[in-house]
Inverse folding.
């Protein structure tokens, strides 16, 4: 009787380990990378140095943290200027700073947000920019 229970326990442990390990093996080759944002807007084309507020790697991963910090700084403290790591000073404004260069919301914002199923609430307050041709 004890030997029969031991076989079931070991079989259960083996099945559990295989199921857990399978999720790692199966997903290993399926690394997702979001689509590259479209950077061919008129404002960016006119720039001599194509620089964003911060470095591109930072903006790809942490732009929402930056925008949230800007929102809090502007609305709670009345501070409207942001000094970047480069030393450049920018106006803290989604419409006045970010969307001046990234004017095509569908090609720039929506491509990544839709592929990641993210629904940012920026445009619940801010006007959606019209596409500039």
């Amino acid at each position: 009787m004890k030997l029969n229970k031991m076989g079931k326990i070991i079989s259960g442990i083996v099945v559990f380990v295989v199921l857990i390990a399978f999720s790692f093996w199966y997903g290993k080759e399926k690394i997702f990378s979001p689509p590259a944002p479209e950077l061919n807007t008129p404002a960016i084309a006119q720039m001599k140095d194509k620089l964003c507020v911060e470095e591109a790697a930072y903006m790809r991963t942490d732009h929402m943290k930056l925008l949230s910090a800007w929102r809090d700084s502007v609305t709670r403290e009345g501070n409207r200027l942001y000094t970047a790591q480069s030393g450049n000073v920018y106006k803290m404004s989604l419409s006045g700073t970010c969307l001046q260069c990234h004017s095509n919301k569908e090609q720039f914002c929506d491509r990544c947000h839709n592929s990641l199923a993210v629904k940012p609430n920026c445009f619940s307050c801010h006007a959606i920019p019209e596409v500039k041709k």
